[in-house]
Amino acid sequence: MAWEPSADGLNQIITLLKQSQSTDNAMQRSVQMKLEELNQYPDFNNYLIYVLTQLTTEDGPTRSLSGLILKNNIRIHGTHLQPQIIEYIKQECLRALGDPSPLIRATAGILITTIANKGGLQNWPELLPTLCDMLDSQDYSVCEGAFGALQKICEDSADTLDSNTMSRPLNIMIPKFLQFFRHSSPKIRSNAIACINQFIINRTQALMVHMDTFIENLFHLSSDDDREVRKNVCRGLVMLLEVRIDRLMPHMNNIIEYMLIRTQDSDETALEACEFWLTLAEQAICKEVLTPHLARLAPVLVRGMKYCDIDIIILKGDVEEDEMIPDREEDIKPRFHKSRTHTQKFSGSVAGGAIGVGGGDGSGAARSMDANDEDDEIDDPYDEMDDDTNLSDWNLRKCSAAALDLLANVFKDDFLPILLPILKETLFHQEWVVKESGILALGAIAEGCMNGMVPHLPELIPYLIACLSDKKTLVRSITCWTLSRYTHWVVSQPHDQYLKPLMEELLKRILDANKRVQEAACSAFATLEEEACTELVPYLGYILKTLVFAFGKYQHKNLLILYDAIGTLADSVGHHLNKPEYINLLMPPLIQKWNMLKDEDKDLFPLLECLSSVATALQSGFLPYCEPVYRRCISLIQQTLNQDLASTTSPDQYEAPDKDFMIVALDLLSGLAEGLDGHIESLVVSSNIMQLLFQCMQDSMPEVRQSSFALLGDLTKACFQHVHPHIADFLPILGHNLNPEFISVCNNATWAIGEISTKLREDTKPYVPMVLPQLIEIINNANTPKTLLENTAITIGRLGLVCPLEVAPSLQQFVRQWCSSLRNIRDNEEKDSAFRGMCQMITVNPVGVVPDFIFFCDAAASWMNPKTDLHEMLQKILHGFKVQVGEENWSRFVEQFPPQLSERLAVLYNI
């Protein structure tokens, strides 16, 4: 017997569906509760599908809503529904794909995809054959409905469709889709392309065999009248450019011409086409194929950067003063805390890549590896450019700017003869929107064309500084961004000429009456701080007065960016901040905010990060504030651990905590330990920090372990007497975390082991077998990132210093990699202790270094000025080796050296 609804049940559900469309919150809550209650009845879902597919007397939105409620039920409770109910829903959905209403067809398609995703496509074997048969229906609604469903399935299940589990349905589906590229209905043509596009990126075999037909059909549709069709053609070509550029090469000129036209469309096709230039810029053939078209492309991209009228309305571009209007919470993007990682400073002052041994990139800066280094995410400057939640995250303006940026990096200064006339025309244009796009373009080319731009900067930088006080908000904000892209040059010039005026104007903009400008100025100022570092010291009083004044002025969102600017300032000027007048300016507003925020307020994250930098910079200057800050961090860690335990033991009663509170607190404690050094001892002694640390070090979340190992290392340096009693508990955990799968965790564990060994001295002996084999494995792994290699080498060296007899027998297994890793690091305490360890090990096991002695020579030459006793140790080993092998062998050995290395060794070690 087919299922039939009761009239009462049907009326009740129709009433609920009508009520749920009400805008009254109370009514919506009451409907929600009733819907939850009805879920107790198995045939509730039968009623919902009945309303969607058979109640044709009802209006479309009510029927569609019924289908969407059913979709959620299947998503949440699908696995518990009786098989006969699911069967009934499946049949009805397939029937409804031919409904005269496009809304009902689309809803049925969504339901079909949800059932397929939830139960697995392979468990609905008749679905794909049925949909493919429906494509041949003479009834347009049936064909279009089936295509809509297929498109969603291709989008959601591309991998499954291309796997053996389904006996390769794509071998039938792809040729079938290709037949519809020339269908009379634009909707169906568009669906057919969209379905096939899903299989380009994975180079699906079933598509590859039909590649020529596919490309030919795409070209045929390139001038289609329908916007969606053209959009999908562009999308397909962009993906082909990425994976099958060889097939496009014969047609590349025509494709470029076509994309030039499409990038100028007045609809969203322009964005799809603009992606083409982004992708092309990353291909090796870019320069060769694009050079003839560059002069026509550049103005198109710059025009694409111009705000259109609707953007200006959305961005409230005509609203000048809005600083008094509170932010809406939904406009504040979530911030992610980056956990502390211990890194080395490295220098390029070494004997120039001697014997191809090391490959230091010598930019002389500290690389900071953070939690995201595992997947190498780079912040996209174009995400920040018009930071507004109302404008779609990615739009033609941002895409055009990013494309111009990448192309400037490809063509470098050869691009300038084309760009300079465009810049001249736009930068000084009467219309502010054109001028604004010119300023953006100038920022976009900063990285790629920097050398060629240098002669023009003495004229352009003062012009941009003047634009910082333009009457248009959007001009002021983009100018902040563009100037931030040239700060490197500004800092290298005489201060009075550029740095001072830039700094003064940016500080005025930090106090602008417009929130967007405040935000852009704060971000630009943070970039300036990173570039200028201690060059800002003479202006510290003035800078701090401005930043502190902004505290009282800023609304919620910009306050979070202000914390970042203050933290970056502290990182950049370090101990120069430790002056009573600066501390008295800066600390009261920070502590006031700190006291106002509740423990569960996520605004604590940026404030704690900021305080961590400030504590490290102020050193003893932070002492008056350290106790309440320390206590609160301990309390945050304790609360998070308690919550975590409660939610693990009774998940139904307690929610899992946000562990970021604990991570940020651990990092601030690290900042305190580093800044206060021995002064932290009195705080540590009267707290349970060691017990908490023991728990955090075993947390399931990598970022928690990462931060706890950083703190352990910092406490080891600051007050080892309190760490010492717990070593037997801590070291096995550290050894267990020497797993390069979690780079930053492994990095911090390695560093902490090195710090502990220098304090434990010969008592490290029992722990060497626990850590040395993993460290040797890491240093010999070709995929180990540079920072981790360097920290591993230092820790092995330190272990060799305190336990040479235990480590030296393994010397042969790591000496070559060890020398290559440490040749790029600047002279510092850590390098010093590591090299002393290496000298000790060579003394114990000289044979271990013989096959790789050239690498040792190179590493010894990397010192600028080693301490006297270390210098003697290195010299003794070098001369000892020379005596051992004899003059003749030594001469032959030295002939292999690059001239630079021989010179360096002669000067440094008289050999």
Automatic annotation (TrEMBL):
Subcellular location: Cytoplasm; Nucleus
SUPFAM superfamilies: ARM repeat
Keywords: Cytoplasm, Nucleus, Protein transport, Repeat, Transport
Region annotation Disordered: where it falls in the sequence: 361-383
Domain Importin N-terminal: 31-99
One function term, GO molecular function aspect: small GTPase binding
A GO BP entry: protein import into nucleus
Keyword flag Cell inner membrane: no
Taxonomic lineage of the native organism: Eukaryota, Metazoa, Ecdysozoa, Arthropoda, Hexapoda
Acidic residues bias (residue ranges): 371-383
GO cellular component assignments: cytoplasm
One protein family per Pfam: HEAT_EZ
Protein name, UniProt field: Importin beta-2
